[in-house]
């Protein structure tokens, strides 16, 4: 495995900001999965793991996570006490902080697709996966840099990359910014989390007002119109009969992304 130069670690640390300057950072040229590395090496202090390439990246429900060379792949691991709780909407809070951080760096037009995708006009830019293990919280993030390099999406989906959004620099400092965004989202109190989801999620909500079909575990589906999310992160779906609040599911927009809102 190639040795990562110290100046790359320094650049990541600079992107994370002063608050997280003492965070442990591990960088690799290639890993099976940054999140799996943290699962195999449970951290005793906040730890950031970065890989230039993943060979076994994974997404929700065990799906393969396309991780071609040139993308941005980072996972953050935090030690947890055995009875320590985490916010039910943590993945949404992390997504919100990632979008706002990317907007601040000059990458505009990004929205949030419940529950864990960052999209631009429906094309997938990034995904995240939050996992709770007995003594570790792991949040993994994968961001496309060149959308044309992503080939493992379903036939009805497209990918887009950061280079299609801006000519801003993309590199280790931006990786640090993403890691810092994840760490920041884990510090919010329950009241802060509710306020942010209430006030900021609607600004970036890609699904609000759209007709969708939600695929749930066990193969069941629900169709309806999205009315936003609850303050605890559940999707509000208006069906023909009632309003349902969903905790998980795979959402597919009915019709064209540009014209169906």
UniProtKB/TrEMBL annotation:
InterPro entries in the record: aa-tRNA-synth_II/BPL/LPL (IPR045864), Biotin_CoA_COase_ligase (IPR004408), BPL_LPL_catalytic (IPR004143)
Superkingdom in the source lineage: Bacteria
Gene Ontology CC terms, in alphabetical order: cytoplasm
Keyword Ligase set for record: yes
Stored NCBIfam families: birA_ligase
Name of the featured protein: BirA family biotin operon repressor/biotin-[acetyl-CoA-carboxylase] ligase
Coiled coil segments of this chain: none
Alphabetical UniProt keywords: Ligase
Organism: Spiribacter vilamensis
Record-linked Pfam families: BPL_LplA_LipB
Occurrences of domain BPL/LPL catalytic (ranges): 21-190
PANTHER family in alphabetical order: BIOTIN PROTEIN LIGASE, BIOTIN--PROTEIN LIGASE
Gene Ontology MF terms: biotin--[biotin carboxyl-carrier protein] ligase activity
